[in-house]
Amino acid sequence: MASRKEGTGSAAPSSSSTTGQVGKGKGKGGSRDSAVKQGQIDGLINTYCQNIKEFTAQNLGKLFMAQALQEYNN
């Protein structure tokens, strides 16, 4: 009976630990890469939104001034 316990005990951890290590290794590398890419994308989106905000703020100001002048002249 002792040989059966050793055989069963040694076989189960080796297969699950090997599978666990492979899965963990792939997950960690992929997570790091995706986290870096996500950070870069977030930075690009933030810059893009700031540029739009500045551009639209200037043009909206001009639009409201033109509207006020048009109403004043009529």
UniProtKB/TrEMBL annotation:
Residue ranges with Low complexity bias: 8-21
State the Pfam families in the record. eIF3h_C
Any idea where the eIF3h C-terminal domain is?
42-72
Region named Disordered: 1-35
What protein name does the entry list? eIF3h C-terminal domain-containing protein
Name the InterPro entries for this protein.
eIF3h_C
Superkingdom assignment: Eukaryota
Organism the protein comes from: Canis lupus dingo (dingo)
